[in-house]
Design a protein that fits this description.
- It is a single chain.
- Helix content is 28%, strand content 26%.
- The strands form two sheets. It has a six-stranded mixed beta sheet with strand order 5-6-7-8-9-10.
- β2 and β3 form a beta hairpin.
């Protein structure tokens, strides 16, 4: 009979792995052991010097050779400020005033990505890494502009810098713009409260570096 997993030992092994990889301490939130639905153990944790809002996932998988493989999503927390700065530089070429935030989703990221990996070295066509970006712009600044063309221009610059992901742009009613932050928002609630002019427009740079808009491949503008 196989030995029953020890949750505390698994948690400590994951935390030790994180500390060695990133050179800092982490706080565990919850641990779920592998079961019929998931073939891996799952730990939620956050950096001790950060906050619980910076939580991420750690996966532990028992391999066929008896080893225990650990992967994590902490790189998404680390790289967000630099990634948002790089994207802001791109968006600034199309919109003079805006607010944006980036999310990298749940789950884990490629193991080679660590605290020393810059934005320009993230992309690899053989790995799964993508971003979800939300941009807010004032209604008065884009009244006479082609929003979808502007997004294609942004996507073209993203592709040049090998930045993969989905971008949504919301046009915000002028008098409500200042009350929108530059971090994660409850977008459905803001929509219901009349913050936005119509629905969002979007564009995507896919992992194979094509640009798609409205379900079709398009050519970048600009």
């Amino acid at each position: 009979m196989s030995k029953k997993p020890n949750p505390e030992a698994i948690k400590e092994q994951m935390l030790s792995h994180l500390e060695e990889k990133y050179g800092e301490e982490f706080v565990p939130i919850s641990l779920s052991l592998s079961d019929w639905a998931y073939s891996y153990d799952r730990l939620q944790a956050y950096p001790k010097q950060g906050s619980e809002q910076d939580h991420f996932e750690v996966w532990g998988t028992k391999m066929e050779d008896g080893s225990y493989r650990i992967s994590d999503g902490y790189f998404g927390i680390l790289i967000r400020p630099e990634y948002e700065a790089a994207l802001s530089g791109i968006v600034r070429g199309t919109y003079g005033e805006f607010k944006l935030y980036v999310d990298f989703g749940e789950g884990v990221l490629p193991d080679r990505l660590n605290k020393n990996t810059p934005v320009e070295q993230i992309y690899s066509q053989d790995e799964n890494f993508s971003s979800d970006t939300v941009i807010f712009v004032k209604e008065s600044l884009v009244q006479d502009q082609d929003i979808e063309a502007g997004l294609r221009q942004i996507a073209g610059k993203m592709r040049e810098q090998q930045m993969v992901g989905f971008v949504r742009l919301y046009v915000v009613v002028d008098e409500k713009y200042d009350s929108i932050g530059s971090g994660p928002q409850n977008l459905s609630a803001l929509q219901d409260e009349g913050y936005f002019v119509g629905d969002y427009k979007s564009v995507m740079v896919t992992p194979d570096m094509t640009i798609r808009q409205n379900g079709e491949e398009v050519v970048a503008d600009g």
